[in-house]
Amino acid sequence: MAFTTPTAEQLALYLGLPEIHGERADLLIAQAVALCETVVKPLPDQATAIVLSVAGRAYVNPQ
Q1: Model's pTM, two decimal places?
Q2: Handedness of CA 31, 41, 38, 47 (dihedral sign)
Q3: What is the tens place of the pLDDT at every residue in 9-18?
Q4: CB 2 within 8 Å of CB 42
């Protein structure tokens, strides 16, 4: 099974948020994917958890 980029809705669910700023979430997810791909490319399916973790950290703590 190939890696599928998580959605903003999945990030909201991961973070337990009732709503999420979609454009910001999409940007952070894309950046998390790019960062992970500096380590391994193509990303395995299991990388979804890491991408959500990285994007989630950036979303809740933008500094």
Answers
A1: 0.92
A2: positive
A3: 999 999 999 9
A4: yes
- CB 40 within 8 Å of CB 32: no
CA dist 38 and 59 (Å) reads 21
Percent pLDDT > 70 in the chain is: 98
Helix (H, G, I), strand (E, B) or coil at 45: coil
Amino acid at the residue 63: Q
- CB atoms under 10 Å from CB of 8, counted, come to 19
**Residue 14, token pair as written in the block:** 């991961």
- Per the listing, tokens 């960062």 go with 35
Written as six digits, the tokens of 39 are 């380590």
